[in-house]
Design a protein that fits this description.
Structural class: alpha/beta
Shape: globular
Radius of gyration: 22 Å
Bound molecules: pyridoxal-5'-phosphate
CATH superfamily of the largest domain: Type I PLP-dependent aspartate aminotransferase-like (Major domain)
Number of helices: 12
Largest sheet: 7 strands, mixed
CATH class of the largest domain: Alpha Beta
Order of helices and strands: EHHEHEEHEHEHEEHEEHHEEHEEHEH
CATH topology of the largest domain: Aspartate Aminotransferase, domain 2
Strand content: 15-25%
Length: 394
């Protein structure tokens, strides 16, 4: 796979849609589609076979792992395990925790980072970064044994960034580890395990412009190496004896990647990661922030629509905004936006029920949750204006 970046590598495929639901699934970019098309003629089994197809496929699969390790700032010894998505990655980590691990999680999380954890201590989503750090400090100092603090990098409801670096410091000061749900962070902001001081990071390819069904768990190898395989079967086993239970499990990422892996998912995700590493991410982020400011300013003029926030209006965020609609059903509004204006947004509770319930307050009109607008590469000011005009018309 070539790592050369053409100006079109991060171009979104599929013009003519006002798609403002990137937080659910982002469109495919050229780099991902090109990588898949380039590999298809030699597509074959991974780690299973000696023929040229198998050799090429195995090489590309392992190369994809290396590219993603670079993209995520992995440290020597860190592992990159391919999964189906973020939910799968966090469930894998939950099953790999040493026995007796306590997990600490804020209740503002997406269900993928709220539900998998055994022995979970749930903290109320704080009102500020400082409160988040204090709450984590207070919880962690009283815990013994292995502890994992797990937190989102950016909220899928409000788009607000969470103080990952600060929480990592607190966690490590108390001998705990930290996992970062980067499903909504990685598409917008560079994520580096080394720079954040995080122990694990999870993400989804389909939110990162590579919608071919792959996700990733990256981070410290020791717990993963010591854990039972996530999926028992071929690929995860190094030796199987004649008696039941006589199995030696594979070491390294293969231990948790039982079955034939998703080659095209891995390769397309790596192609996007490579393109993003080469791109001017500061410029991409600056452009996204301009779009965000334009959107938020326009939304303030929409009667009966109030932006929701955990940390306050001035907090740093990515291209995601959710609105509480006074007395209007967000699903009905989303349906009309689609049917009458050809605009795709999302309505509901976004798999973050506790947080959305809280942010919706007691407003009767918010029983159906919120209306979410999210965007990224390829979004234009015109897209935002079309949404604002449609909302004004409604
Ligand atoms: N975490 C966050 C913050 C998300 O926004 C999502 C999906 O929207 C997930 C986890 C779960 O991602 P997936 O559905 O790809 O497993």
């Amino acid at each position: 796979m070539s790592l050369a970046v053409h100006t079109s590598d991060l171009d979104v495929i599929g013009a003519g849609f006002v798609h403002l639901d990137y937080a659910a699934t982002a469109p495919c970019v050229r780099a991902a589609a090109d990588a898949v098309n380039a590999l298809l003629p030699s597509y074959g089994s991974v780690h299973r076979g000696t023929g040229p197809r198998s050799q090429t496929s195995t090489l590309e699969y392992e190369r994809a792992r290396d590219v993603i390790a670079d993209f995520l700032g992995c440290r020597p010894g860190d592992q990159v395990v391919f999964t189906r998505n973020t939910t799968d990655a966090l469930n894998l980590l939950a099953r790999a925790l040493p026995p007796g691990t306590t997990t600490v999680v804020f209740d503002g999380e997406h269900h993928a980072n709220l539900l998998p954890w055994p022995n979970a201590l749930r903290l109320r989503a704080p009102a500020s970064w400082a409160e988040a750090v204090t709450a984590a400090e207070r919880a962690l100092r009283d815990l013994d044994g292995p502890v994992l603090l797990t937190v989102t990098g950016a909220s899928n409801v409000t788009g607000e960034l969470w103080p990952v670096r600060e929480l990592a410091e607190v966690a490590h000061r108390h001998g705990a580890r930290i996992a970062v749900d980067a499903a909504q962070l990685a598409p917008h902001v560079p994520v580096s395990l080394a720079e954040l001081g995080a122990d694990y990071v999870a993400l989804s390819g389909h939110k990162l412009y590579a919608p071919f069904g792959a996700g990733v768990l990256a981070g410290r190898a020791d717990w993963l190496d010591a854990a039972p395989p996530y999926l028992a079967g071929g690929g995860a086993s190094a030796h199987v004896g004649d008696r039941a239970g006589d199995v030696r499990w594979a070491a390294g990422p293969a231990r948790h990647e039982g079955g034939t892996p998703n080659l095209l998912g891995a390769v397309s995700l790596a192609a996007v990661c490579a393109a993003l590493v080469e791109a001017d991410r500061a410029a991409l982020r600056a452009h996204e922030q301009e779009l965000l400011a334009h959107l938020r300013e326009g939304l303030r003029r929409v009667p009966g629509a109030a932006e929701v926030s955990v940390f306050g209006t001035g907090s740093e965020r990515v291209g995601i905004v959710s609105l509480a609609l006074d007395g209007r059903d967000p699903s009905a509004v989303a349906t009309r936006l689609a049917d009458e204006f050809g605009i795709g947004v999302r309505a509901g509770k976004f798999c973050a029920h506790p947080l959305v319930r809280r942010l919706s307050g007691d407003s009767a009109g918010c029983a159906g949750g919120l209306l979410r607008v999210s965007f990224g590469l390829g979004t234009t000011f015109e897209d935002i204006d079309r949404l604002l005009e449609a909302l004004a018309a409604l």
